[in-house]
Amino acid sequence: xxxxxxxxxxxxxxxxxxxxxxxxxxxxxxxxxxxxxxxxxxxxxxxxxxxxxxxxxxxxxxxxxxxxxxxxxxxxxxxxxxxxxxxxxxxxxxxxxxxxxxxxxxxxxxxxxxxxxxxxxxxxxxxxxxxxxxxxxxxxxxxxxxxxxxxxxxxxxxxxxxxxxxxxxxxxxxxxxxxxxxxxxxxxxxxxxxxxxxxxxxxxxxxxxxxxxxxxxxxxxxxxxxxxxxxxxxxxxxxxxxxxxxxxxxxxxxxxxxxxxxxxxxxxxxxxxxxxxxxxxxxxxxxxxxxxxxxxxxxxxxxxxxxxxxxxxxxxxxxxxxxxxxxxxxxxxxxxxxxxxxxxxxxxxxxxxxxxxxxxxxxxxxxxxxxxxxxxxxxxxxxxxxxxxxxxxxxxxxxxxxxxxxxxxxxxxxxxxxxxxxxxxxxxxxxxxxxxxxxxxxxxxxxxxxxxxxxxxxxxxxxxxxxxxxxxxxxxxxxxxxxxxxxxxxxxxxxxxxxxxxxxxxxxxxxxxxxxxxxxxxxxxxxxxxxxxxxxxxxxxxxxxxxxxxxxxxxxxxxxxxxxxxxxxxxxxxxxxxxxxxxxxxxxxxxxxxxxxxxxxxxxxxxxxxxxxxxxxxxxxxxxxxxxxxxxxxxxxxxxxxxxxxxxxxxxxxxxxxxxxxxxxxxxxxxxxxxxxxxxxxxxxxxxxxxxxxxxxxxxxxxxxxxxxxxxxxxxxxxxxxxxxxxxxxxxxxxxxxxxxxxxxxxxxxxxxxx
Length: 755
Prior knowledge:
- The chain is mostly beta strands.
- It has a domain at 683-750.
- It has 4 helices and 63 strands.
- The strands form 18 sheets. A 4-stranded antiparallel β-sheet has the order 1-59-56-55, with no helix packed on it. Strands 3-4-5-6 form a 4-stranded antiparallel β-sheet, with no helix packed on it.
- Helix 3 (716-732) packs antiparallel against helix 4 (738-750).
């Protein structure tokens, strides 16, 4: 159903779905009073467009339409007319956040395969009804690469089990099994219904499986020289008896579908695969960079398409869906603005325009507070950057950056770690935003085998970046970049087979935490996560420790208010003595590990340590280590502003553990603290040690704060009388025992204060 014919049938645009599931508007002004101990919801930060894939097919009464699957809360299937450029319908995919695959079978049914619940949805163009058909294979999070087969059947692939499945009305699901042992991704499939054969693109080690659907026989036809290469087959299309392959680093191949023999290579393909066979019976189209390219089937030649002037036919990005109408090629171009292209092979004429895919409220991926108090957010996958002024409660879209998995600040500038190419960019908020100029790329880590710069820290003129490896690879990296002279050192595999996901500068050392996870599609080789120290000048590792034996990840490290290193490992808080590397405390706080989003923050407002994990927000007393739960749900990606307020996004945890629907930005203001920068010595001092454990008394004041042995006293007697009065009040309040009071007063009496 990829090709379609134009039939002029007037169809009214229905707004029922939009009325039932309206897209959230951008954040508007909200009450911004910073009331201590409260949470303020600043609402949706951005609505934006992320179209994963488009399919040209037919709608009601055989009307030519484009079906697009979009990211949203929940995911969206949009129906537009490519000629009149109308939005005809918006269907929602409950419990999903989007879909990576969409197709239409011969009976007219449209199918979408979702994430993170990995369900298959059907859409009836005649009745405009959507049905959740369920999960084809248990335990999966993503469905990929939907393709139609014979007799109304649809096929697709899965992650993380690398299965192929099929669905047919009246029969239901069929699991065709794992395509390659040890692999996690089947990212696309191609189907030959006439021969009952399917091809599965398997990542991340690089395999292309030919599956005989009748016998179940599987053969890997991926060229021998490419096997084991992490540049694996990503998009595949069977057109004119030849198999078109785009590898995940955009190299294009054309293969014999039975033997894997290479028929053509040496070109770049950026699009989500190719067009169907053109009406001329010999042409196949795709995009390379921003240009439209053509492959000639009889001659196996490939090159750019030219217009009537001889100039390349350009789009505004990569093609994500192609179809033909009245001999002309139509394409949806790019994921983020609804761009489209029309090209007439007969005349060479082309046109670029937009389709009205509806923007949606999208998940916040990363949050950071700037030195001026404004709060910056970046959208998951979409990559738009927005900034909120807490004083007005208004968020504005700054521009598209790319998916930032980490932010850092140094001398008023924002450092940005962008996936999937491992880019590290620098942005000056005081100057106009212009991607490529401000921000501009300092370097990229993909050549060093990295794709996610996650952790940032700084000291002096140096920026430190912790990163995780690319798909199919092991070994993260620590990068040191000197802002004064542009020198960079990247130390890959600084801890063998582990990624670097948390950083903190404490004293004259850099402290770092690792994860045993490799890049996407890999199984860990290491046994337990480490904390290591590195030289601030060179980034060379100086020591390593195992604070929580058996932990998979150490997602956060901070300099504690008590002079210790505090960390978070698999949902457990630990306290480490920086002088010896010994762990002095371990706290198993409520909530399970939820990955790199787990954070520790030492509040500048009350000196308490806050732990955010699994939706919880906990407040930890740095003296007693007592844990108080502030929130038990919808708290993710916590960061802190200069006043000690905590900022985070919301989110709903799905049954499989995935967190979605996190488009709102919220602020928690810590409770009142009458004693900023509290005295956190472990025991109470009254001119000397008393042997009594120090503790918090009230309104953020410790016993040491109330004793005030650092103050000037007119006489020794006045100081001792003050100590006796304060400790007497604390006994009455139940915070000290009588014996503890006597020990503190005795220490004051022995002291020389006021003498």
